[in-house]
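[09:14] KT: can someone run the structure on this one? pasting the chain below
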Amino acid sequence: MNEVNTLKRNPALWIPTAFFAMGLPFVAIAQASALMYKNMGISDGQIAFWTSLIMLPWTLKPLWSPVLEMFKTKKHFVVATQIVTGMTFALVALSLPLDDFFRYSIALLAVVAISGATHDIAIDGVYLTVLSPKLQAKYIGWQGAAYNIAKIVSGGGFVYLAGELEKTMGVTYAWMVVMATYGAVMFLLGLYHIKMLPSGGKAEEVQSLKEGFQTLKDVIRTFFQKKFILWYIVFIILYRFAEGFAIKIAPLFFKAAVADGGLGMSTSEIGLVYGTFGAAAFVVGSLLGGYYISAKGLNNILFKLALVFNIPFAVYSLLAIYQPDSIYIISLAVVFEYFGYGFGFVGLMLFMMQQIAPGKYKMAHYAFASGIMNLGFMIPSMLSGYLSDLLGYKIFFIWVLVATIPALLAAYFVPFTYTNSEIDANN
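[09:31] RB: done, structure tokens below
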């Protein structure tokens, strides 16, 4: 596909589906699998550690991102990984009835993580290549909304489905159906994008493996030569630091018995809360955040976005202290947190696109940035199970609030390489 046709393709036809496909595997591992394993008798500590550890490919993806710059088109890798992810989810479903299901399913979910991380590199490359900086800002809310809808579909709709099926089929077979459904959705998205996704431009062919390693070396060298890069690394690690602690434990806290400090909710109730009220708040927050950035300019409002992103984690502390039994109160808390999450998250994504990615290796450098971002998410996630067991839910969620302070300080002081006017001038 030539570049003219690529530019004429309406971004609304592929951005929502492509970034939904980006979010679904990530959230399946980060959240839904945690509830699955808890219902199948695995301890909180094991769940938090292993489901966080296998997310390592989202941190290491910069190491193979230059390879995707060298061969075929970005679209090729997007479609291929969506189909591979779909097939692997089907294998996860088949592994659940086995005696050693935890070992096998964790290994297969690690394959999903590798495929998903590769997919993220490629689709980010399509986004950065096809859209101008102005359109990137315009559609960042669409991107965030689609990603967050995947979070809601996974943590809400699929979890609710699992809870309902558990009542008639039992836990194992209920989650077999859900994992198979993940697989079917990803496979169908792959087929859709064969037709609808822009190519993202043809890669430059390399003649040898040595040349490929030389390119990787140049990618790394030029990344660390960027202005303010150490500042930027600290900022993107810290922005999601508190979220890394909260996101893994929140559904386990909702599920835990009241006597154990939890809210005693059923799997279906958790899915309902996330999949209804939370869904609407997430989408509205993401869309409004994108348009707010487009209108005001990221340079002027980054600290405000960080506040909106981090402060709502306070609702989990209040829920842990008061342990309300009203699903409406719990839903209101989730609405507040998810709206803030959607509104503030798009600021981080656009910052990486417009302040870190620009240059010769746009796709690879954005992959470096997002990989470092996921490291800041993964490390606290791995520790969250241990800390929640040690501290109890009340103290743990107070700690989450303390963990927001570094993010707010980083957002307040981080410098900008490109001003709003310079970004607009590149349109």
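[09:33] KT: thanks! The first helix runs from residue 3 to 8.
[09:34] RB: yep, looked fine to me
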